[in-house]
Design brief:
300 residues; alpha/beta; pyruvate-formate lyase- activating enzyme; 7-stranded mixed beta sheet; 3-stranded mixed beta sheet; 11 helices; 10 strands; 37% helix; binds iron/sulfur cluster
């Protein structure tokens, strides 16, 4: 694994506005910039360009750490103008990525949210979240909490290729199950569904079935999108690792999104399988069930 560098910075604001009125969520916290999980498709790669770093290896190895984020979060939560709206933790980087084991910033932010009984939505691939299960369970007793584990496939070869530094998908599902047992509402973001790698009905069903068996209270699909910044990193990977898929991607990803007829067919398959595995009666609202063009994108 490549050497990782941590760049500690101070920020003036940590609860930041997301321009996504249709998503029902306006606020996000990202304690870090860059992500050691190194997913090849990550849309947040483009943000590293703003820092003068490349969206490839630098994104995974130059981690910006907002060391005063807990203090600033406490100040913002105390502000008379704050209306206790739901905050999405992890929209553009994983808040429980490896750096969090060293810095503990996310844990302090969750403590601040608990002190203010502030609703929280989480998106993560990390089992490190279990370290903070006590806080999340306490928060879930007094405010709306929803944890979303991103799991796009259970296929180990595909997982290792596309999400090389993430916890194994089966471990993520176990972590989700632990949270559910503790009373923390949690489910699966079936994401990203990658054409040719994880879009076969059998692959989708394996995730939905495992989600059901681990007590997920929702499953929400998101098909792969390739925005500028991510596309330049993903396509060489595809060419190198799955060259037979290149012509198909040239047809599907003329822009950032696959055509509606493809995404709608995937969505139909997911809905059918969700019904089969009993999700029709336990569906809860997920923070972002789709990726409408021009709207909020999540680092899945
Ligand atoms: S998709 Fe999520 S977990 Fe993967 S690198 Fe991006 S922010 Fe990290």
């Amino acid at each position: 694994m490549a050497q990782v560098y941590f760049e500690e910075i101070q920020v003036k604001s940590v609860i930041n506005r997301v321009q996504a009125p249709n998503m029902g969520l306006k606020w996000t916290i990202n304690p870090y910039r860059g992500c050691q999980h190194a997913c090849v498709y990550c849309f947040a790669r483009k943000y590293h360009l703003e820092l003068g770093y490349n969206p490839g290896l630098d994104f995974n190895t130059r981690i910006i750490v907002k060391t005063n984020a807990p203090k600033v979060a406490r100040e913002q939560l105390r502000s008379p103008g704050w209306r206790h709206e739901t905050i999405l933790l992890g929209a553009a980087c994983d808040p429980w990525q490896q750096a969090e084991a060293r810095y503990g910033i996310t844990r302090e932010i969750v403590k601040a949210l608990l002190a203010h009984q502030n609703p929280l939505s989480i998106l993560t691939k990390s089992t490190l979240i279990l370290r903070d299960a006590d806080l999340l369970a306490a928060l879930a007793r007094v405010a709306e909490v929803q944890v979303n584990f991103s799991v796009g496939t259970l296929d180990e070869e595909v997982w290792k290729n596309v999400e090389p530094e993430t916890p194994k998908p089966s471990k993520r599902l176990e972590a989700m199950g632990e949270l559910v047992k503790l009373g923390v509402p949690a489910g699966v973001m079936l994401a990203p569904i990658i054409p040719g790698l994880s879009d076969a009905p059998a692959s989708i069903e394996a995730v939905i079935r495992a989600a059901a068996e681990h007590g997920a209270n929702h499953v929400s699909p998101v098909t792969l999108h390739l925005r500028p910044g991510a596309k330049e990193w993903f396509m060489p990977f595809l060419r190198e690792t799955y060259p037979y898929l290149e012509p198909r991607y040239a047809r599907l990803y003329k822009g950032a999104y696959a055509p509606a007829e493809y995404t709608q067919a995937v969505a139909r398959t997911v809905e059918e399988l969700k019904r089969k595995w009993g999700f029709a009666n336990r569906q809860r609202r997920a923070p972002c069930q789709a990726q409408p063009r021009g709207q909020l994108a999540l680092a899945l």
